[in-house]
Write a structure and sequence with these properties.
elongated; two-stranded antiparallel ribbon; mainly alpha
């Protein structure tokens, strides 16, 4: 009994000690919570006193400033919650900000890249101008002269003898025809698309195509509105998207200068209708829509989109959105091309479309054309694609690449883009 009493007394003392400890911990927790609540409340008041003037300024600022601040908050939040993608988000946000502050149809390339592209255009212009100043020395044909003339037209240093260039290409027509072949003065095969290049180059030099040159173009147009590559292979299956787009462009450029009459309007309308009716998904076209073996061409698709922008600009929003949604993922180099080697039966034997379609110039031009019709995100995507493409070493040094026979077409696209930057 004595032992039991001793154990009971010990237990009472132990329980009393535990009770005291718990009571003490509760008091400490209450004190800590009160202190935390006090500091939180006053910290909020402190932060509010610091930030409120800035917040009031933001809320009173113009809409564009508030959007820019919002993008900044998104960028900070993205870097915290998604640490692996802050740079990508930053780049896109920066692009959106530049688009937001730019004029409605302005392409807001970064100032550094714009300067680089301007310098590149001047260097290419100088090289191409050198070719045109030595027509009797440099072995080039009328098609190349047309491309080079269109590319250099309107340059700051416009010292070319336009009359000499026009005389050269008209001296080297197909005998007995106001038309051209790939090889100067060769009778066959005539190439209808060269007439499109000629009409464009003449218009850029403020020169009117002759009535005979216009009659040839209208006379070789198929009933469905298309043109063949070679007039001697004008069967339905050989209707050429490339030739149709180029002759449409040429007629539109001549009409834009006031050099044509209403006779060409019907040809323009028929060509436009044919191109619209042969389009594929994603704003893409085949070189030969009536040939089952023909596959989609990015280069020709860009060319067609540009021609349609000049012909029916009010109808292009949907196609532009499709184009932007389907911009190619791999970076395209200036020398990348497409070649199809389509064989066809002409009236005088076998003919082959061996022409290489350079991709980058017409991807650039079509994207520049589509840019104003996109929403904010579409334009940001287009801008990012353009800047990634143009920042390639192969682009920045395009003037020094060996065998850059495509330089005139590339300069033509570069100058077109720089007009709206």
């Amino acid at each position: 009994m004595k032992a039991w009493n001793e154990w009971s007394d010990t237990r009472k003392v132990h329980c009393s000690s535990v009770h005291s400890i718990i009571k003490y911990q509760v008091l400490v927790n209450k004190w800590a919570f009160a202190m935390f609540e006090y500091f939180t409340k006053n910290l909020e008041a402190l932060i509010d006193s610091i930030l409120k003037p800035y917040w009031d300024w933001i809320m009173a600022a113009p809409l564009k400033t508030r959007v820019l601040v919002l993008l900044g908050f998104f960028a900070i939040g993205g870097s915290i919650y998604f640490p692996n993608v802050p740079r990508s988000f930053y780049v896109k946000s920066k692009g959106i900000a530049r688009i937001f502050f730019a004029a409605p149809k302005q392409l807001p390339l970064s100032p550094g890249l714009t300067e680089k592209m301007g310098s590149l255009a001047k260097r290419l212009n100088q090289t191409i101008k050198g070719d045109l100043l030595n027509l009797n020395v440099v072995s080039i044909g009328p098609w190349t002269v047309a491309q080079s003339s269109a590319a250099t037209a309107g340059a700051e240093d416009d010292s070319l003898n336009k009359a000499a260039l026009v005389s050269f290409v008209r001296t080297n027509t197909v005998p007995g025809c106001a038309c051209w072949s790939e090889i100067p003065q060769q009778i066959e095969p005539q190439c209808t698309f060269i007439s499109g290049w000629m009409m464009t180059a003449f218009a850029d030099m403020n020169v009117s195509s002759t009535p005979a040159e216009i009659r040839y173009v209208i006379g070789t147009q198929n009933k469905d509105g298309s043109w063949p590559i070679f007039p001697s292979a004008s069967q339905t299956q050989y209707a050429s998207t490339y030739s149709t787009a180029w002759n449409l462009l040429g007629l539109l450029h001549q009409k834009g200068k006031g050099f044509t009459d209403k006779d060409v309007d019907q040809a323009i309308a028929r060509a436009t209708g044919w191109l619209l009716s042969t389009r594929m998904k994603g704003a893409r076209w085949k070189p030969y829509p009536n040939l089952s073996a023909s596959s989609e061409s990015e280069s020709i698709s860009g060319l067609v989109l540009h021609a349609l922008h000049l012909s029916v600009p009010a109808q292009m929003s949907e196609l532009d959105n499709e184009w932007i949604a389907n911009l190619p993922s791999p970076l395209i180099k200036p020398s990348d091309g497409e070649n199809y080697f389509i064989s066809m039966e002409g009236t005088n034997g076998l003919l082959i479309d061996h022409f290489v379609q350079i991709k980058l110039p017409w991807l650039l031009i079509a994207t520049v054309d589509a840019f104003p019709n996109g929403d904010m995100l579409d334009r940001a995507k287009s801008l990012l694609w353009l800047e990634n493409t143009l920042n390639q070493e192969s682009v920045l040094n395009a003037d020094s690449i060996k065998d850059n026979w495509w330089r005139s077409e590339f300069l033509y696209a570069l100058k077109y883009m720089l007009k709206i930057v």
